Amino acid sequence: MKLSALSPVCLMVAASAFAADNPPAPSAPPPATLPREWVDPATGHRVIRLSDAAGSNALYFHQNSYTPEGDKLIFNAPAGIMAVDLTTLGTGEPKLDLVVPGATATEMAWQTRDVYFTRGAGGRRGGAGRRGGASDAATPPAPGAAATPAPVTPAAAAGFFAANLDTHAVRPIANVRGTELNCDETFSVTTGNATDPTGRVQQPAPRVMVPQRERMFGDKIKAGIPLTPDEEYAATKEDGLSARIPNQASMAFTFTNLKTGAPLTTGYQYAWLNHLQFSPTDPNLLLYCHEGTWHEVDRVWVIRTDGTGQRLLHARTMDMEIAGHEFWSHDGSTVWFDLQLPRSKDFWLGGVNVTTGKETRYHLERDWWGVHFNISRDGKLFASDGGDPTQVAFAQDGQWINLLRPQADGTMTREKLVNLAMHNYVTGRGGVEPNVTFTPDGKWVVFTGNFEGAKQVYAVEVAKAK
Asked: For residues 137 and 272, what is the distance between their CA atoms, to the nearest angstrom?
């Protein structure tokens, strides 16, 4: 079958059928460029490319990308921060607006029509290059390094701003430390190496770590079964993260009052603090993680801006259990996370009510797992962005954008939305993680894809095409 001789629509059908029987290597180039809008022949769902420049990407999955009114979506493009008109989505070519040239969006404000952004190298995440399946880790402080105070240099001096999506008016945000702001713009937060000046938080005894090949695949090794290249790659990634666990440095948060500029350094822990997310509704509650190899750490934590209420939301109950890639429900009541009991074997989506501590779990099949999950505004739907065979699920048919519907019996039903057989997930090898989000009306799932040969931002309609 000579794919290049086919029309774009026929080409997509042929490519999907070919890929189903012959999954390509993650880095395989697509056979041709797709039209701006098409119906995925493998799923029956309409897909629209929102971006018009290669190298564009949606924000990281837990960063707010939408206005409070739900009428606009923001993403990062080579030219700067783009806004998409969601009120006309699906009725013609997407309407794009360049809000801030040469800037990188970090998040939409929860209560205003402002987008927070940096200029130059100060940006973070933005949906590109995040590590999937085991950790989303940023570069950590050096383990065992001499303790230093948490950073206190205002980020605004380096270029931290807000821009109104309608007027494009730009204002600097005073007193910011870090790039994480709470829902009413009264606090920012950052982390750094720091030891408890009271001496109450003491360093735990060093842990003895077993090589991750043995931890993750001990049964196969004992049985003399060779590991696959994907398994070897996964073990190598985990070894890099686990190396800092035996002798953790002490870290702390610095919460800064944006009105007064007064900083408070608190929450001292011998752990690598990462994945900071303020509640979308409670301005004084921060979700964060103990970063590292997920099956070696109790990951999901919260703390209040005055240093009180520091607690673990989900404690592991078995060896090799993991909980990770945590995110808030939109009403701020629940923290959801990827839960595996144990790692790479039994898959769940877990949630903890932050007020009552009650835990909810929905079971998933292996091929339904995603590097990231997300939830609709009304809490009735979930989405996952899939994963290739190198990811923690080691799925053989996992490269899909999935729609997941929770059931009363604790299971999920799954509907395939987009075929990502030609997508490269491996961030260490030129890939990108899709980072799914629902539009506020729940009618579309937005994601980043590179199945046309470069990063672009797409939306897939939740309803099937008519």
From this structure: 9
